[in-house]
Amino acid sequence: MQAQYNSVTLASLGVLRVRGADTVSFLQGQLSNDLTLLCAGRSLLAGYHNPQGRVIALLRVLQLASDDLLAVLPRELIGPVAQRLARFILRAKVKLADESAQWTVTGLMRAPASDPAAADALPADLNGAARSEAALVVCVAEQPSRWLQLRPAAHASACGGGTELPTQAWRRLAVAAGEPQVYAATSEQFVAQMLNLDAIGAVAFDKGCYTGQEVIARAHYRGRVKRRLQRFVTRGAALLQPGDTGELTDGRAFKVVEAVPGAEGRCEFLAVAALPGEAGDGNRAAAAEGTRLLDAEQLELPYAIPA
User: Fold this and answer.
1) Most buried of 52, 53, 55, 109 (most Cβ within 10 A)?
2) d(CA 290, CA 6)
3) From CA 179, how far away is CA 161, in angstroms rounded?
4) Interval 43-69: pLDDT, tens
5) Residue 164 forms beta bridges with which residues?
6) Is residue 248, in this structure, part of any structural domain at all?
7) pLDDT tens, position by position, 77-92
């Protein structure tokens, strides 16, 4: 017996198609992960950075064929990312196309009512990818398991047989998992390590050069990063959006990366802030960007932050 899956339509995500004989070598010089590891059974999460190492966008990359890739990222960033990438194509045999209209992006979660003994028909390992009928499916989280499904827009429906859930259900799990996202409001605001890209496998430190690599490598090998993505929940009612800034009651400045409404009007959110015990003059200077004072409880992340 196979498990049943609830689904979430992720209309805010789009698809950038990159194809041509030089696709892998071209993206290898642009993205933070090692594109040579990409295959039909494995996807990659990678950052696209400016020369100062700040994250322009996060891309979930999947393989259609060895020279034909799909990158999933917020629709609002596909145009700017494609435009920037196009500047560096030069004579490379690479074509970029916004194919958001040709694909439907759906989140899948194991239905609570599903038989606990039922086997998952979808890839079980983190970043594992597979084809399911006409769709591509990738595992983006293991505990609890979640999958991202890309299917042609003409295809009838998402697989699973479960219930269609609101987008907040997916975002709430993403916040709990400490998964960063970059939107137009936060593009080019954070160095890779500030979003914990080094902790979630989105940076390969043993690959060749790519845009922003020097800054990211220097932070990795020569200095401790004092401001990191952390998880919080407000103690009272609050409404937060990506890009919002303010100061926590312990004096740490913060900038919101992702947020979702919680119980009793409270807000669960991910924000870049000084690590506990690291507040100082630099942090106080950052607080000048926003004067909102926020009472929030810090929650644990499900992964370790590199020291």
Assistant:
1) 55
2) 39
3) 26
4) 999 999 999 999 999 999 999 999 999
5) 7
6) yes
7) 999 999 999 999 989 9
